[in-house]
Amino acid sequence: MEGDSKAKKLMDPKAIPYKMLSLDAFSQWLGIEILECEIGRCKVGMTIRKEMLNSMDKAHGGISYSLADTAFGFAANTHGKYAVSIETSVNHIEALEEGDYLVAESVIEKVNNKLGFNVIEVKRGEELVALFKGIVYRTSKDWEE
Q: Which domains, and CATH codes, for the chain?
C-alpha cells in the first residue's frame, strides 16, 4: 500500500483547463468562463467591463488578446503535458465596447512531439473581432492530480 501513494496519477486531459483556471488569478479577474473543452480544443467566454476600457472608451487590446491567450493555453495543455507559449500574435479586427460578450475558441491545428500550433478566433456573436495565432512548446512534464 505504501507504494501506491507514490504512484503518479495523471489528470483527465479534459479536466486540465478547469485546474488551470482555478490557479489563474488574472483569468479569474477577467471573468473568463470555460464554455467547452475537449482534447485539442477549448472555448472560453467573458464580458467586457468598464475597468477594461482604454482612453478612447474601447476595450484595451490586451483584453481580447488575454481571452485568446487563455483559450490557447487551455487547449494546448489538454494533451496532458505542460505546454508553454513561445510565440503569439494577434490581429485586432473590430473595436470592442463595454458589455460586449466575447468568445474565443482555440483549435490545435498541428501538434508534434515538442510544438503545438494553434489558431484562436475571438468573436462577438457571429462577428470575428480578433484573430490570434500561437505556438507552444510541449514539455515532458505531465499534469498530475
A: 8-142 (3.10.129.10)
